[in-house]
């Protein structure tokens, strides 16, 4: 089964890891607008994209996860200007400087560490997230948007950028498109705000599954109820045919609710708010089996 996963951060990484364990053919379309931390420092120095979430996605899709994570996530300490920088981000930047291509740098790194998925940037050129507050103030940058006390009236990219054609092709060829989990405003929305991504999502007939966070996220997105999120996305991006939602207790497909088995609910609930890999493997297996009943079984025969 061809699965496309959209988003960024730890949520995307967990979903990618789970789908790879299930043997799906996976493509990640990763947000590149982060302006905080190591990624933000590199962007300020001239990097075209935020490498951090791309690095996390690559690590999540390797079979040798622990060793690769330790090597690529190491942060330099007491080393002058390198202090706080992450090994994997610097390696991706080095490969970009050698090749002149963001996508090629990611592909080379993926081959080096044995990535089992295709990891793609939402765009290959600099772009930042902008928000218009309820009183009309323009707020620039993800770190500032995350600090807003309430949901913005409008969200946009600061310039029109194109997605790589590989992203569009992956969406067209997908059997299932997973959106989330993760930060709604700063991990999910940057990708969905891309006009060509929107167009591809609107024209494909594949199932589009929104995966909710287990618990309320911090920041402005905590001001809206989970049941309102898909409608909020639609109000900003238009109707993209999101026809399935997975939450802690329910799978919703074409407005029909399937209550998750009690044993699975307890696994998903866990003791924290993170989507643990084992929980997601169980949940996505259930999703796949349910979709088999709802749609053409041939599309989901791997499960």
Automatic annotation (TrEMBL):
The keyword ATP-binding does not apply. Transmembrane segments: none annotated. It comes from the Bacteria. Keywords: Cytoplasm. The keyword Phosphoprotein does not apply. GO terms for molecular function: LPPG:FO 2-phospho-L-lactate transferase activity. It holds the Pfam family CofD. InterPro entries: CofD, CofD-like_dom_sf, Gluconeogen_factor. PANTHER family: GLUCONEOGENESIS FACTOR-RELATED, UNCHARACTERIZED PROTEIN YVCK-RELATED. This is Uridine diphosphate-N-acetylglucosamine-binding protein YvcK. It comes from Alteromonas sediminis. The gene is yvcK.
């Amino acid at each position: 089964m061809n699965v496309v996963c959209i988003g960024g951060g730890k949520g995307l990484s967990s979903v990618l890891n789970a789908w790879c364990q299930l043997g799906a053919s996976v493509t990640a379309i990763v947000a590149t607008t982060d302006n905080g931390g190591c990624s933000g420092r590199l962007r300020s120095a001239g990097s075209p994209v935020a490498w951090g979430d791309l690095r996390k996605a690559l690590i999540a899709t390797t079979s040798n996860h622990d060793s690769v994570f330790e090597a690529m996530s190491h942060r330099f300490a007491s080393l002058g200007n390198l202090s706080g920088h992450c090994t994997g981000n610097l390696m991706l930047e080095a490969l970009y400087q050698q090749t002149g291509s963001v996508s090629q740098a990611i592909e080379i790194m993926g081959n080096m560490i044995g990535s089992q998925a295709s990891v793609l940037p939402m765009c290959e050129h600099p772009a930042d997230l902008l928000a218009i507050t309820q009183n009309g103030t323009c707020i620039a940058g993800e770190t500032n948007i995350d600090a807003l006390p309430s949901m913005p009236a409008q969200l946009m990219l600061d310039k029109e950028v194109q997605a790589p054609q590989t992203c569009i092709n992956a969406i067209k060829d997908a059997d299932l498109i997973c959106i989330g989990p993760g930060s709604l405003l700063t991990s999910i929305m940057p990708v969905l705000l891309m006009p060509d991504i929107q167009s591809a999502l609107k024209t494909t007939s594949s199932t589009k599954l929104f995966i909710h966070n287990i618990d309320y996220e911090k920041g402005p997105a905590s001001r809206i109820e989970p049941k309102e999120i898909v409608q909020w996305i639609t109000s900003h991006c238009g109707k993209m045919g999101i026809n399935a939602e997975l939450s802690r207790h329910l799978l919703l497909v074409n407005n029909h609710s399937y209550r998750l088995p009690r044993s699975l609910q307890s696994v998903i609930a866990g003791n924290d708010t993170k989507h643990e890999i084992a929980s997601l493997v169980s949940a996505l297996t259930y999703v796949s089996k349910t979709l088999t009943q709802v749609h053409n079984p041939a599309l989901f025969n791997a499960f």
